[in-house]
## 1
Amino acid sequence: MTIIEKTQELGQMIIESEEYVARQKAKISQTADEGAMNLIMEYNQKRTGFMQKLQNPETKPEEVEEIREQMDKEYGILTANESISGYIEAMQNFNNLMNQVNGIIAYYVNGQQNDECGGSCSSCSGCH
């Protein structure tokens, strides 16, 4: 079997994984939730406005802090939505899986173990 064939096999295994399936279901659920989609749209508009203010060189440090607090508040509103928080969690779980896969591949290619291992595999990029 060639590397390409093994890679295709790995890709198939990934899309059949629990993490991928959960991410896809959460994405569909979030997209079908009109309230969630409106929250995302509002958040993105507010974030754009905040970013424009932050890029203004005349923005004072206290204004920057106020903008950060407003952004945190808006993010809290966003993540209070069940569809959105479910998608975020599913996405994080899938990203953890992909980081582990990529870390394992990097280990075999580079022959280096991750020296920053904290012992928890949930956030691991793959040490062995």
## 2
Amino acid sequence: MKHNMNLNPAPFEMIKSGEKTIELRLYDEKRRLLKVGDEIIFTNNVTSEEMSVNVTGLHIFNSFDELYCALPLLKCGYTDKDIESASAADMESYYTKEEQMKYGVVGIEISRNLK
């Protein structure tokens, strides 16, 4: 199955370079349709550039607090420069605590399609 998701330029480029291999999202109705082996087309929400990736794993948690304790944050979009200040609260600019409690969260493990 094919899915479409938008991304800000910085995480888009990190996935494109292979530096980021886990995309963090709310585990809402749209993300509950994801299965290992599915394709995601990420669209850069500034340039409209598209990139295809395959879903290689799904890591489901109740909250970003749990996810941040369990997954390697350097694969989730953090770098050596900002890993020390990484906090689950960083995700609250995208998803409220209430949304996290309602849906849970997911770390979508991906690999680039180099077609």
